[in-house]
Amino acid sequence: MMNRKEFYEYVKDNVKEYLPESYKDAEIKLQEVEKNNGLKLTGITIPNGDQRIVPTVYLDSLYQEYIHGKDVDSCVGDVADMRIEAQGKAEFFDMGVPDILDYEKMKDKLQVRICDKEWNTDLLADKVVTEHGDFAAYYAVNLEENGEGISSIPVTVSLMNEWGVSAEQIQANAMVADRKRGVTLMDMNEIIKSMIFGEEPENLLNEKMDMEAMENPMFCLTNKAKMNGASLLLQEDIRKQIGECLGSDYFVIPSSIHEVLILPDNGIFQVPELNAMVQEVNETQVERQEQLSDKVQFCDKKTAVMENAERREARLEKEKAAEKVEVKGGIHGRLEKAKAEIKAKEADKVPKNKSKDLAAAL
């Protein structure tokens, strides 16, 4: 059995046998592609003629099929099939390449992508990035969006320079575009029912809900397509709207890059327990490249300010401790100061020959 590197090289050396004649002169390349959270995937690019946009076929999952018994030549055939299938889409995008440099045509196609900034240093290195507490936002141009998924290109610093706009302008236009994709806040219980019965859950974003009447209230914030919807969390007016719906402060659970969960702060949940829950779910249920973060956030309903829940608790404890010290020290200090002032006034009134007696008495 071949190891991973040998498998990739075998695919590269043999895939032309399964492709049409138009690919016979293709310069085939293997490349490592950085994905979310440090995940690196190996892709193969097979140009067809002078195409400017060449689709990447990822080989990692095929290697897993190979080590579990699939014939290696069947895997190579699958790669060829995927490349041929992607050709039509690549030609469509290739025709639109000149438009990519026209910001006015691209700004409505922008989308905010969100990730944990500590996990994604390499991924963000050449991207247009804005920071939001624990999160970093980077941006993409969605060339196509449909029920099958999204085809996009990242907004790099070099592309931004070609456009001649600022990162702030890109952020503002991307957030407007995201609002147009639809903002939904749904009851998790209703989402589970919809999986069984097929009915779309009600969008509660404009509702004022009675939390006391709800059993285990938990909500999901995402977009209508449920793709890359967690970034809606970065919009202050949406956070404020959620606070008004709930009528309380709330915790934000970073479920995945596609959605976040909202829990009202009703005194039941403890931050360490929530953090532990997120870490466990990430490790056992969420694909690495779709993990958003393991840091629970807290949002104030009045100010819509969002901050790391653990650091917030530490800050509040520190402020409370400082307040106690200030009150204790402050009263003592004020008494001492008043006593000293009285002494000074009395000393001015008392004849000098009696000042020693007063001092001794005090």
How would you describe this structure to a colleague?
A six-stranded antiparallel β-sheet has the order 8-9-11-10-12-13, with helices on both faces. Strands 4, 5, 6 and 7 form a four-stranded antiparallel β-sheet that branches. It has about 350 residues and is α+β, with helices and mostly antiparallel strands. Helix 1 crosses helix 3. It has helices at about 5-15, 60-65, 70-95, 95-100, 105, 120-125, 155-165, 165-180, 190-195, 235-245, 270-285, 310-350, 350-360; strands at about 30-35, 40-45, 55-60, 110-115, 130, 135-145, 150-155, 185, 220, 250-255, 260-265, 295-300, 305-310. The protein has four domains: about 5-95; about 105-180, no CATH class; about 185-305, no CATH class; about 315-360. The model is unreliable at about 350-360 (pLDDT under 50). Helices cover about 45% and strands about 20% of the residues. It is elongated.
